[in-house]
Design brief:
It holds the Pfam family Methyltransf_11. Helix 4 links the parallel strand 4 and strand 5. The longest helix has 18 residues. The protein has one domain: Rossmann fold (3-Layer(aba) Sandwich), CATH 3.40.50. Strands 3-2-1-4-5-7-6 form a seven-stranded mixed sheet, sandwiched between helices. It has 200 residues and is α/β, with parallel strands linked by helices.
């Protein structure tokens, strides 16, 4: 049984399937940015031959390394770690961009993708009232329902709240840095960005 369909649930895990669907079945090497204790990286490894996870939080990486498997978990800063440019077929991230400068993070993810590769991000952003009120109300109701029916797993990674960037700002950054990307607002106070890097 996968961890996604097992007992653990929270707002981030809820959108792991969205990431997994976005990653092409042809991907040979994937990077999970802000991998935490490795749940998404392990799900990716079911279909991607080589998976690398990177996170700044040492306790989370230690937990990730406790799981058997051949995933390369790196304790380090994604923005400065010496990855080769254009060296991944897929770069994914869940609830990580708000821990860094979002524009810098998106640009770094873009540059690490090979031509034809896929970038898939699920993130958190800050609401701007009153435009976001309907989304926030729906997210509150849905979150309460899921917590009542599925429970709630609190991940061990550090948290940042409130997110420094608003939903409209994230949409604009995606349009500017990733032309042709697909931005979507989701319940549970999340957004997603999916982008395929043009062939050279």
């Amino acid at each position: 049984m996968s961890e996604i369909t097992g007992r653990r649930w929270n707002g981030n895990i809820h959108y792991h399937p969205h990431i997994l669907r976005a990653v092409s079945g042809e991907a040979r090497r994937a990077l999970d940015v802000g991998c935490g204790e490795g749940m998404l990286a392990r799900e990716l490894r079911r279909t991607v031959p080589e998976v690398v996870g990177i996170d700044l939080d040492a306790p989370s990486i230690e937990q990730a390394r406790e799981h058997p498997g051949d995933i390369d978990y790196i304790l380090g800063d994604f923005l400065t770690h010496p990855f080769e440019p254009a060296s991944f077929d897929a770069v994914v991230s869940v609830a990580t961009l708000h821990h860094m400068d979002a524009a810098t993070g998106l640009a770094r993810m873009r540059d690490l993708l090979r031509p034809g590769g896929v970038l898939a991000v699920v993130g958190l952003a800050r609401s701007t009232m009153p435009a976001d009120l309907p989304h926030d109300l729906a997210g509150t109701v849905l979150g309460a329902f899921f917590r009542a029916t599925k429970g709630h797993w609190q991940h061990p990674s550090p948290m940042v709240w409130p997110p420094p960037v608003t939903f409209p700002q994230m949409r604009q950054l995606a349009a500017e840095l990733l032309p042709g990307s697909r931005y979507r607002r989701h319940p549970l106070f999340r957004y997603s960005i999916v982008w395929r890097k043009p062939q050279a």
